[in-house]
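Figure 2 data, in text form.
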Amino acid sequence: MGTQTISLADLAERAARAAATELTARFGQQASGVAAKSTTTDLVSDADRAAEAASIGVILAERPDDGIVAEEGSGQDGTSGIEWLIDPLDGTTNYLWGIPHWCVSVAAREADGLLAGVVHDPLRGETFSATRGGGAWAGTRPLRIADDRPLEEALVGTGFNYSADERARQAARLLGILPAVRDLRRLGAAALDLAWAGAGRLDAYFETGLQPWDRAAGELIVTEAGGVVIELPGRGGGPPGVIAGAPRTARELAQLLELAG
């Protein structure tokens, strides 16, 4: 693990914490600037925008030539070979409804793949991080996914799409999945769910239609903790999804999902 990777991880955490400062100051207050994006259930607010600006500001102050891909569109092309994937508020619906389960996700990648990632949960005071080849961490505690459970004993997380048609397909699929696992959890923040899979709080997690900023940091946390990530094909030209978690559990879940359609 090179010094550059370490410095990228440090910068990712500082950027995530800058975003979190904006978010926690507004959490529980009357939301402003709320608007719909892809559907009427896919929301953005001034809190998202302020958090995105804060995180990008931290990164560009030190690395102005890097590329930026951010959920709310404040991106830029870079010339350095490093690109940042930023979700300034993952779990916007939870945030707007006052549900304390949301996070900030920041990751850095190059052409050969992900280099560093951070998922920061400010309300619980937890920061999950990973660097390529350097392991995964919850604060200062190293993460290592425990021995695999068979699927019927696994606690599995999932998420639902913003498209009503895709949500109907997901609901139908759950009829074949729920009886085959210990139980399902739908918590509402994909990046944090992935980090929890890396921490062993979920044995596996799956969701379709995830954007790169939703999944980048969490995927690196899972793989550096010893788990696997299996890509799910996108539907109707939409973005792909993932299955992530303990190797045996994730692979058995992938087989089950294929049967469920």
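Caption note: The chain is about 35% helix and 25% strand.
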